[in-house]
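A reminder from the course coordinator: this example appears on the midterm review sheet, so study it carefully.

Given structure:
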């Protein structure tokens, strides 16, 4: 709305900060505080002069850590939006009880822009990303057969609509592989649609880690570690992290007698990968778990290390 004022603390080199936050503000003829980075105390200070905050889940978990966050602090605020990574139902509930606001969670991707959203008027259901936006078709299909599934059953989420991109720049094969023959984009997110029509995202089939709203492709990190002296192979996974949602974790197999340790791996990556892509922990194992086809079972590793960051 034209009299809105957005607190903009997202990077503007991503869809969320540029197209969603900035363009929507311009389209509405509204205004914003454009901040160089997210600082929870500064954001709290601006709330008395603002009406909307758009953030990734880490914004909300960090705001919850401030004792200043209460109903008085948000008295002028109309809307809190979350996207780019899954918002834990627990964060939604805690934020609601501290502030009286139900965070509006929505679902987008760089390839599609925004797909679904919880309603502005109506139930914003924790753990769901709401309904398809106007003009967007969302279906859930069987991952093996590609056939649409009934309500409540989990499968691959596919999207069609004028919001969907045309393809990856100069990557026709990747583009072809990620669209169905009837023109749906295969998101790589696994989910279901419940009887009320709310979309739930329950997992991911693409080998991708999302840390603090940034996408990390494990292959890139694995490629760097595999090149190191003393390393046989490795697998990079995301495991639950209290601040970033998922924490990048490398599981490494060393050559017999090799001295490479966690510090050495981190040091080797320091200058060749952006900081957010660098593992927060490096674990060593004798061998990686594999299925009968010889494929590394990352799900087994994710379970094994699920509690790694439990204490922060
Ligand atoms: C910073 N670090 C990170 C991350 N961000 N490590 C892992 N994951 C991250 N996301 C590193 C820093 O370099 C630093 O390294 C250490 O972690 C702690 O930094 P800190 O000061 O706590 O971080 P920050 O600068 O406060 O940043 C956290 C953040 C930021 C505010 C959550 O990551 C962020 O703005 N995320 C938003 C990303 C986003 O806009 N995604 C939208 C993509 P050291 O320890 O060396 O000091 S578009 C999208 O996903 C679709 C379209 C959608 O639906 O929106």
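Designed residues:
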């Amino acid at each position: 709305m034209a009299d809105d004022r957005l607190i903009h603390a997202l990077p503007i080199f991503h869809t969320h900060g540029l197209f969603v936050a900035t363009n929507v503000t311009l389209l509405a003829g509204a205004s914003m505080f454009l901040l160089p980075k997210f600082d929870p105390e500064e954001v709290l200070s601006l709330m008395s002069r603002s009406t909307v905050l758009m953030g990734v889940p880490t914004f909300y978990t960090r705001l919850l850590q401030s004792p200043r966050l209460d109903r008085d602090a948000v008295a002028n605020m109309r809307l809190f939006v979350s996207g780019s990574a899954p918002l834990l139902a627990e964060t939604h509930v805690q934020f609601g009880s501290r502030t009286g606001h139900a965070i509006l969670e929505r679902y987008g991707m760089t390839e599609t822009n925004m797909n679904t959203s919880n309603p502005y008027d109506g139930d914003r259901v924790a753990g769901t990303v709401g309904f398809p936006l106007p003009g967007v078709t969302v279906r859930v299909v069987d991952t093996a057969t590609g056939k649409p599934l009934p309500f409540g059953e989990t499968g691959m989420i596919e999207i069609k609509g004028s919001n969907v991109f045309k393809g990856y720049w100069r990557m026709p094969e990747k583009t072809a592989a990620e669209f169905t023959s009837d023109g749906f984009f295969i998101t790589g997110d696994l989910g279901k649609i419940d009887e009320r029509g709310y979309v739930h995202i329950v997992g991911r089939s693409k080998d991708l880690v999302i840390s603090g709203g940034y996408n990390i492709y494990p292959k890139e990190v694995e490629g760097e570690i595999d090149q190191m002296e003393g390393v046989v192979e490795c697998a990079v996974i995301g495991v639950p992290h209290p601040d970033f949602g998922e924490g990048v974790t490398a599981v490494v197999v060393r050559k017999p007698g090799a001295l490479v340790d966690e510090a050495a791996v981190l040091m080797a990556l320091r200058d060749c990968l952006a900081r957010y892509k660098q593992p927060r922990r490096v674990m060593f194992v004798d061998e990686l778990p594999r299925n009968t086809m010889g494929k590394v079972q990352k799900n087994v590793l994710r379970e094994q290390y699920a509690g790694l960051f439990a204490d922060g």
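The chain has eight helices and 16 strands. The chain has a mean pLDDT of 97.
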